[in-house]
Amino acid sequence: MSKESEVPGEITEADLAIARMATDMAIASVGEQNPDIYTMKAHFDDAFGHLCKILGKSNRTTMDETSAGS
What's this model's pTM, rounded to 2 decimal places? Predict the structure, then answer.
């Protein structure tokens, strides 16, 4: 994981990666019982992309890339 400046209150790419991974895991666990969750996931993906753009952060925070950086 890269060193990022730690400014209190600043959202880092690591923060976004953790949020993304947790959300993906939650959606995967619920998806077996409720396939409609994947429609909501598409909306989340769009919103997450917009948030990353606003913050000027990368949107390449998938579970594979997050675990590779650990």
Answer: 0.57
